[in-house]
C-alpha cells in the first residue's frame, strides 16, 4: 500500500458540516454512511466526499434537481428537443432526460445493472 | 491551418476530443481563456442543503457539423460549454435537461471534466495523461455513461487527484466511453481505474478495454498521415 501513496496536498480537517435532510431518500442506506456523503479520512489521496450510485440516484428527485439550470445554452437536439411541438415543454423547463427511476423504485439498486453483451 | 488533430475525429477511438494546438490556436485560446475566466470567476458553489461534490465539474458538448469535412473545422468551434456544477443536485439539474447520449444524432460527444480542465490534450492536466476506452455496441451508451459519471462524481475511483474527466462519443456504428487521467505512466492508478470501471459498469469479463496515452494517440495520427512536424499539440 505504501508504495502506492501519492503526493497529496494537506488540507485542514473539515470542521462540522450541517446536512439538511428534507427527504427520506437522502438518508444513507447503511449505518456506516453519514448523510451528505461519507468522509473517509484515510483513503489514498486524502479526505474525499464519496457517494455511491444509489445515493446519487436518490438525490435526483429533490425539487432543486428538477429546476431548469440558469444559463443553460439552447442547443437544439441536446438541451432542447428538435421537434416543434415539444419545444414548448422544454421552454417550460420540462425534463428531457427523465428516463430513470424514482429513488424509491427498486431498480435503482445494484441489481438493476443489466447484463451487457458486447 | 486546421491541423493534424482534426483527423483524429475520424479514427473513432474517442480521440476527437483533443485536437487543435497550432501556434495560432494557442493565441486564440488565450483570449478565450480570459473570457472564460472572467465569466467563471464565480465558481459554482453548492446551494444550502445540497450535497457538495469533491470537485466542481463542467459539461461540454461537441459535434462535427454535418456536410463539412473535419479538416475545415476546428475543435474549438465545435465544442460548447453546457454548464458547471458543485453539488449532486446541481448535477441532476443539468443532466436532466440534456438528452441521453444514446439519443444524440450524428457525430457528437458529451464531455464531463473537472472545472478548469478543458477536454483537450493540450490542457496542462491532460498532456501527460491518457484514457481508458471502452467500445459499446449501439443501445448501451446512455446507461454506461450514467454509471460512469456517477462513479466519477461520487469519487468511486479512489485515485486521488488523478481523474480528469469522462467522454461519451456517439459514432456511426458504435459508441465509445472513455475516462481520462493525469499521469499515463502511473500504472497503479491506471490499473485501479480499470478495475473500478469493470465494477461500476458491470462489464462482462471479456470486454476489451484499451488504454491509450494521449501522446501515443498523437503519434499514431502523425505516422498515419506522414506529417513531418508533429509538434504543436504535444
Automatic annotation (TrEMBL), chain A:
It comes from the Eukaryota. Residues 65-118 are annotated as: Disordered. One of its GO terms (biological process) is negative regulation of translational initiation. GO terms for molecular function: eukaryotic initiation factor 4E binding. Keywords: Protein synthesis inhibitor, Translation regulation. This is Eukaryotic translation initiation factor 4E-binding protein 1-like. The keyword Coiled coil does not apply. The keyword Thylakoid does not apply. GO terms for cellular component: cytoplasm. Residues 94-111 have a biased composition (Polar residues). Belongs to the eIF4E-binding protein family. Pfam families: eIF_4EBP.
Automatic annotation (TrEMBL), chain B:
Residues 1-50 are annotated as: Disordered. Residues 1-31 have a biased composition (Basic and acidic residues). One of its GO terms (molecular function) is RNA 7-methylguanosine cap binding. GO terms for cellular component: eukaryotic translation initiation factor 4F complex; P-body. Interacts with EIF4EBP1, EIF4EBP2 and EIF4EBP3. Does not interact with eIF4G (EIF4G1, EIF4G2 or EIF4G3). Component of the 4EHP-GYF2 complex, at least composed of EIF4E2, GIGYF2 and ZNF598. Interacts with GIGYF2 (via the 4EHP-binding motif); the interaction is direct. Interacts with EIF4ENIF1/4E-T (via YXXXXLphi motif); increasing affinity for the 7-methylguanosine-containing mRNA cap. Recognizes and binds the 7-methylguanosine-containing mRNA cap during an early step in the initiation. Acts as a repressor of translation initiation. In contrast to EIF4E, it is unable to bind eIF4G (EIF4G1, EIF4G2 or EIF4G3), suggesting that it acts by competing with EIF4E and block assembly of eIF4F at the cap. In P-bodies, component of a complex that promotes miRNA-mediated translational repression. Involved in virus-induced host response by mediating miRNA MIR34A-induced translational silencing which controls IFNB1 production by a negative feedback mechanism. Component of the 4EHP-GYF2 complex, a multiprotein complex that acts as a repressor of translation initiation. In association with GIGYF2, assists ribosome-associated quality control (RQC) by sequestering the mRNA cap, blocking ribosome initiation and decreasing the translational load on problematic messages. Part of a pathway that works in parallel to RQC-mediated degradation of the stalled nascent polypeptide. This is Eukaryotic translation initiation factor 4E type 2. It comes from Cottoperca gobio (Frogmouth).
Amino acid at each position: 500500500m505504501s508504495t502506492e501513496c501519492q503526493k497529496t496536498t494537506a488540507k485542514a480537517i473539515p470542521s462540522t458540516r450541517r446536512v439538511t435532510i428534507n427527504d427520506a431518500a437522502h438518508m444513507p442506506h447503511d449505518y456506516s454512511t453519514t448523510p451528505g456523503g461519507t468522509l473517509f479520512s484515510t483513503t489514498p489521496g486524502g479526505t474525499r466526499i464519496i457517494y455511491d450510485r444509489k445515493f446519487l440516484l436518490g438525490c435526483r428527485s429533490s425539487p432543486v434537481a428538477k429546476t431548469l439550470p440558469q444559463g443553460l445554452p439552447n442547443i437544439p437536439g441536446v438541451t432542447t428537443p428538435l421537434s416543434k411541438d415539444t419545444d414548448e415543454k422544454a421552454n417550460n423547463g420540462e425534463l428531457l432526460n427523465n428516463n430513470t427511476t424514482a429513488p424509491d423504485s427498486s431498480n435503482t439498486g445494484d441489481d438493476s445493472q443489466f447484463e451487457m453483451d458486447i | 491551418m486546421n491541423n493534424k488533430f482534426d483527423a483524429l475525429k475520424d479514427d473513432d477511438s474517442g480521440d476527437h476530443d483533443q485536437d487543435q494546438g497550432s501556434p495560432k490556436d494557442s493565441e486564440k485560446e488565450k483570449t478565450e481563456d480570459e473570457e472564460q475566466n472572467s465569466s467563471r470567476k464565480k465558481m459554482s458553489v453548492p446551494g444550502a442543503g445540497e450535497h457538495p461534490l469533491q470537485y466542481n465539474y463542467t459539461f461540454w458538448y461537441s459535434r462535427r457539423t454535418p456536410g463539412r469535412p473535419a479538416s475545415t473545422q476546428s475543435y474549438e468551434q465545435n465544442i460548447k460549454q453546457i454548464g458547471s456544477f458543485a453539488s449532486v443536485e446541481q448535477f441532476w439539474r443539468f443532466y436532466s435537461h440534456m438528452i441521453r447520449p444514446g439519443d444524440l444524432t450524428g457525430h457528437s460527444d458529451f464531455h464531463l471534466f473537472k472545472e478548469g480542465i478543458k477536454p483537450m490534450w493540450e490542457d496542462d492536466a491532460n498532456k501527460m495523461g491518457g484514457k481508458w476506452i471502452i467500445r459499446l455496441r449501439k443501445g448501451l451508451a446512455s446507461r454506461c455513461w450514467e454509471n460512469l459519471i456517477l462513479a466519477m462524481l461520487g469519487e468511486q475511483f479512489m485515485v486521488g487527484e488523478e481523474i480528469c474527466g469522462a467522454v461519451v462519443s456517439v459514432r456511426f456504428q458504435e459508441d465509445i466511453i472513455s475516462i481520462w487521467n493525469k499521469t499515463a505512466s502511473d500504472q497503479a492508478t491506471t490499473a485501479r481505474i480499470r478495475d473500478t470501471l469493470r465494477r461500476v459498469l458491470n462489464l462482462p469479463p471479456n470486454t476489451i478495454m484499451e488504454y491509450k496515452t494521449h501522446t501515443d494517440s498523437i503519434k499514431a495520427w502523425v505516422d498515419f498521415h506522414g506529417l513531418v512536424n508533429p509538434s504543436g499539440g504535444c
